[in-house]
Amino acid sequence: MTRHLLFLLIMLLTVSACTVTPDGPQHAVNLSAQLQQVAKVQQWELRGKMAFRQGKEAASANISWKTDGDDFNFRLTNLLGITLVHLVVDDDLATLEADGKTYKDAIPEPLIYYATGMAIPVAPLLSWIKGMPLANNSYQLNDKGLLASLESQCNACEGWQVTYGNYGNVATPTGGDIWLPHAITLTQESPLPINEAPSNKPVTTVLKIKIYQWTLP
């Protein structure tokens, strides 16, 4: 299945859910202590909804994402719980299943692009999703001392901007807690391939992730 057909399939099976939106801490947090805690989180699981838009194409689906260090299990499903995309990264092998077919590569980025059209930098995203900037990212804080936005500057992820909202308090395995974002938007402007955009005008890619539940095993 081409990524364009996958877009259409997901759009036809868009899901919705009623959730209580976290409103973040009442008082400012210590950013240094917060980032130290976030850096220690190497195993996590999230459930929510992902919406994607690139040019005139748009789609949304349920998301389930479980990680253990650099390995992860990522799944998009429709309203009936039927899997649309399943991506597993384990032991330096990425395996993607979509439309009854299986694809493998040493790295996940080419598979993600084939299935969705998104040129996603996976390693940075594993940090960004937790509200943790990388060493070469510039960032802004909100009035509570948590990340409000960041801008990437690495060679592999240049041009991505990330904004955050709705931080919620999540229990850690050690009995403590940590503030994690429940609303994340990634935006990038880049030119389409010449055969798709003769004028070579920039196209905006927007990826929104709304997280209903974080679990730290």
Automatic annotation (TrEMBL):
Membrane topology of the entry: Lipid-anchor
Keywords, A to Z, come to: Cell outer membrane, Chaperone, Lipoprotein, Membrane, Palmitate, Protein transport, Signal, Transport
* Assigned GO CC terms: cell outer membrane
Q: Which Gene Ontology terms describe the biological processes this protein takes part in?
A: protein transport
Q: Which family does it belong to?
A: Belongs to the LolB family.
Q: Where in the cell is it found?
A: Cell outer membrane
Signal peptide (residue range):
1-19
Protein's name in the database: Outer-membrane lipoprotein LolB
Q: How does it assemble?
A: Monomer.
* InterPro entries documented for this protein: LolA/LolB/LppX, OM_lipoprot_LolB
